[in-house]
Amino acid sequence: MSKRILNVVTNVGHYDDPSHKTGLWLSELTHAWHVFEEAGYEQVLVSPQGGASPLEPRSLKFPNYDKTAKAWHADPAKMALLENTLSPDDIDSADFDAIFFTGGHAVMYDFPGSEGLQRISRELYERGDIVSSVCHGYCGLLDTTLSNGEYLIKGRNMTGFAWQEEVLARVDKLVPYNAEERCKERGASYQKAKLPFVSYTVVDGNLITGQNPGSAKATAQKVAAALR
């Protein structure tokens, strides 16, 4: 049986101010997808609402718009996958070996409140399967509780997009909350690289997280290694 990965993407296309567009950070999906594809794993796309996942405009510009992102963007079949994502209600967690939350600032809005995604994450995690995220994808884990009522991330070592990176990206005034701070409030041991925007991953048992867009490939490689 081939291992199966559930990749999570957003349905949100803008910040609170509709004139400021956001969405899926494409390379965070494509880098991971490529790693998982090379490993021979089956992959499925899910989003909080199902249906279309808009793309973050900044992820389609240099230097973020790299070979894998361009190839995906130019492939009608791949783009169709992002137009027709499944909803959590369509997903039986028993069919999957890992969940991978992608990022983009949009996920700050629709990942945390998704009870369906929380259910899938909880079931995978409590079975000992892999729960993973990159960049803002960790927002999908902030409100997830286990069967005992405690936060999934409580007491766990993890990372995600740092507040310092929000400031340097000049979106600290646009984002709805400070994800790093909220992560710490949930009892997680938040860690980050010494320098912003460099690849950084944290593995704590079956919780695997990456800090920023540049960490997507390394995070996926850690997930693939854990699945082997």
Automatic annotation (TrEMBL):
One of its GO terms (molecular function) is glyoxalase III activity. GO terms for cellular component: cytoplasm. SUPFAM superfamilies: Class I glutamine amidotransferase-like. Residues 27-224 form the DJ-1/PfpI domain. InterPro entries: Class_I_gatase-like (IPR029062), DJ-1/PfpI (IPR002818), Prot/Nucl_acid_deglycase (IPR050325). It holds the Pfam family DJ-1_PfpI. Keywords: Lyase, Stress response. Transmembrane segments: none annotated. It comes from the Bacteria. GO terms for biological process: methylglyoxal catabolic process to D-lactate via S-lactoyl-glutathione. Belongs to the peptidase C56 family. HSP31-like subfamily. PANTHER family: GLUTATHIONE-INDEPENDENT GLYOXALASE HSP31-RELATED, PROTEIN/NUCLEIC ACID DEGLYCASE DJ-1-RELATED. This is Dimethyl sulfoxide reductase.
